[in-house]
Structure formats: structure tokens, C-alpha cells
Write a structure and sequence with these properties.
By secondary structure, the protein is mainly alpha-helical. The protein contains ten helices and no strands.
Length: 189
């Protein structure tokens, strides 16, 4: 990809991510939301034709956003794991995970279609999340702050369970409390 084309691709993906974050807030307030490709193009400072040259379908754009945000979330883990005590750093990263999940709610049907088509797989997402969490667990176990007997995959399952189990009327607040309980259970006694 040419440098200018790569820059436009990045601008569009970032603009769509920002738009989805705003839509997630609206969805949390009970509003019906749908990503506007015209708004994404305007936010990126390009025309709609440029958007369609880079992303021929809404799903292609959403898949790029999903992958980019998952990569950012997971790549942040090593630095975060050393930025604070392991338990606090892990909880802070889990809150970033909630931001990631919140923005995906605005993808709605499109995300389910990407999963159904195999463009996005739960196994790949879980594996990447587990690799990120392993940084926190390794550092936490080495310093004695976190248990050494809990696989990262179990923490991913607990995080996903917290998101699914939370009451829709208090989704974010209750999920944060549930994640605090997960981290508490990982602490050494």
C-alpha cells in the first residue's frame, strides 16, 4: 500500500473507532445506534468514495476497526504490566478491555455476522487476550502479588463471564465490580 493510501486507511479506521466509541455511549443510554459511513468519512477528512475504495463494505471497515483495537489493547499489556503493582495494572487493563467491549456493542449485527463468517473468531480473540493477561500474571507471580496457579485462559473466561452476566441496566458499573472480584481472587493471601 502506498504511504498516502496507508495513511487514509489508518485515518478511516481511527475515525470509525472514535465514532463507535461515541455510539457505545449512546447505546448505553438506551438509544438505537448504527454507524454512519458518511460521518466516518467526514471525521476522517475524506470523501465517501475514498472510504469505499479502502473498505468496500461496512463489515470490512468494522473488521479493520475490531482488529486494530484488539491489537492496541493486547499490545498495551507489557508496558502496563510494569507501570504499577501487578494487581492494579491488571485491573486497569481490564477496564480498557471493557472500553473495547463497549465499542463493540455498537457494531451489533455486523459483529455477529463477522463471527458467523469466520472473519473474526472467538478462539483467536481469546488467545490474544490470554497472551496479554499472561504478562500481568507472570510479573505478579514473580513478585508474589498474584497467584501462580491460574491460567490466563481462565482469567479471560472470567472477564467474558463478567461482561455477559452484568445487568444491562448497570452494565459498566456492575462489570467493573465483577472484574474487581476477579482480580481480588488472583491476589495471594
Amino acid at each position: 500500500m502506498r504511504i498516502d493510501a496507508a495513511r487514509k486507511h489508518e485515518q478511516l479506521t481511527a475515525a470509525a473507532g472514535e465514532e463507535l466509541a461515541e455510539l457505545a455511549l449512546a447505546a448505553r443510554n438506551g438509544e438505537s445506534v448504527r454507524l454512519s459511513l458518511d460521518k466516518v468519512a467526514a471525521r476522517a477528512g475524506v470523501g465517501i468514495a475514498t472510504l469505499y475504495r479502502h473498505f468496500p463494505t461496512r463489515e470490512a471497515l468494522l473488521e479493520a476497526v475490531y482488529r486494530q483495537e484488539l491489537t492496541r489493547l493486547c499490545e498495551a499489556a507489557p508496558a502496563l504490566a510494569t507501570s504499577a503493582p501487578a494487581d492494579e495494572a491488571l485491573l486497569g487493563w481490564m477496564y480498557r478491555y471493557l472500553d473495547f467491549v463497549d465499542s463493540k456493542r455498537a457494531m451489533g449485527v455486523s459483529l455477529r455476522a463477522m463471527v458467523a463468517s469466520g472473519a473474526v473468531t472467538q478462539s483467536d480473540t481469546r488467545a490474544r487476550l490470554a497472551a496479554a493477561i499472561a504478562h500481568f500474571l507472570k510479573i505478579g507471580a514473580a513478585c508474589g502479588a498474584l497467584r501462580a496457579d491460574v491460567p490466563a485462559e481462565d482469567v479471560v473466561a472470567a472477564m467474558a463471564g463478567a461482561v455477559i452476566a452484568a445487568d444491562p441496566d448497570q452494565q459498566r458499573e456492575q462489570t467493573e465490580r465483577l472484574l474487581q472480584l476477579v482480580v481480588d481472587s488472583l491476589r495471594t493471601r
